[in-house]
Write a structure and sequence with these properties.
Elements (H helix, E strand, L loop, with lengths): L1 E3 H8 L5 H8 L9 H20 L4 E2 L5 H14 L3 E3 L3 E7 L2 E7 L3 E5 L2 E7 L11 H18 L5 E5 L5 E3 L6 H14 L20 H10 L11 H9 L5 H7 L2 H5 L2 E4 L2 E4 L3 H14 L3 E2 L10 E9 L10 E10 L6 E4 L6 H20 L4 E3 L3 H13 L5 H7 L1 E3 H8 E2 L7 H7 L11 H13 L3 H31 L1
Parallel strand pairs: 1-5, 2-3, 7-8, 13-16, 16-17
Antiparallel strand pairs: 3-6, 4-5, 6-7, 8-9, 10-11, 12-18, 13-14, 14-15
Helix pairs in contact: 1-5, 3-17, 5-6, 9-11, 16-18, 17-18
Amino acid sequence: MNFTATDLYRLFQPSECDLRTWLHWQGETESEPSEYDKILREMGQLHELQHLRSLGTYCHLGEGSIPERSAKTLEAIRRGENVLYQPTFESHAAIRGEECGLLGVPDFLVRRGGGYTIRDSKISRHTDEERHYETVLQLGLYGLLYERCVGTAPVRLEVFLGDGTLGEVPYDGGRAALAQLEHAYDIRKQPREFYEPVGWSKCNGCGFHERCWKQADENDELSRVYGIDQALARHLHLQGVVTPDDLLKNFNESSLAKIKVLRGTRETRVGLKAGDAILHAQALQAGKLIQLRKPSVPINKNLVAFDIEGLPPQLDDTNKIYLWGLQVFGEKPSEYLAAVSDFDQDGDRRGWLDFLNKCKNIFSIWGDIPFLHWTHYERTNLRKYVGRYGDPDGVAGRVESNLTDLFPIAKAALVLPEPTYSLKVVEKYAGFQRALDEANGRWSMATYIKAVETKDADLRTNSMNLILDYNREDLQATWAVYQWLAGL
């Protein structure tokens, strides 16, 4: 049996999941990567090549068969080359009593003193046991292979991070990597498919998402119930509670709240989450929405729908908001208003100031009207941008005072037979239908990055127009959901 550093990555990315590893080894076909995932890979490759160019003269070892590359790597080390690109190391280790082959291909070896530093390039901005543990494990395996092939330990293990800094990973002799490979060995030896709960966030971005969710729906899997987290789903499954019907037959809110579940190394009670789980199991079992109370939405002649599109930190140094979308609905509606960040160095600041100016105009015409949004993303980034560029006329503070998050309002009033309260799910209950049904936040980011990278003016314009259309639909969906909630 053979293992590579990629096997360690697969255990933890895009989320920790044993079944993904097993399905891969069974030869199951994964879905094609999304445009967003393709963009991430392209950015990762670009980040790696930019760093390579900064290192000066290097020895490229990425061509030929694995045995040829391994031999060339050791020869380059004996010559004392300053930089080795894509070196290759092969060795063996006893895993669960079986002699297994090990393969590792780090991005760089950089000569330091009498030895070498092993360095990998990642677009993430953090690497530790809490964030991107897979990178820690991969570097640990590279260190172990280097030590076994060269005869000495590496000088240091490093990560060239997305913000251009170098992060150190302590070398533990490869112990953590070998422990995880033992776990991977156990998974690989499983004779048949085993239980792995699905999760809305957990499964996002996985190549087996459609396959596993389809199966979970067919089996009426309990982990589809909102309020049943991964740890609780596993605990209940061991007790034979595998469907919403099983849950409702065996538990009520009080008895479920008393259950102790192992989360990490600690046992904690289900507690207040039990009520959510029971109610959502009832809704899923009945296949219909349950209304608990009248939604407490603000009532006003006119309201602003507010939605933003942004890049996360691993894709942009500043965690950039590239589109601030606004539209007034009601008795005196406005046209669609979009403040877009330009592509030059000062575009982010100008986009923010344009947004503030548009909000100022709204206040001057409509007064202090509610700004409707979905989840905390808008409030969080509004505060972040005040800290970044300021709020010279107090407009952002005025916007924040008028913000109304519809998500907690909907969740407090309604129990949906759904695993999530995302806007694209809730809007369907409001009868809203999108023209751009396939578009989502990840699609928006991928499309924006394409617009940034291209030199084709027409392609850039078309890309930005698509994002504006998507954002406009988000605002229309927010308004439709508000009207629905107000009418309940």
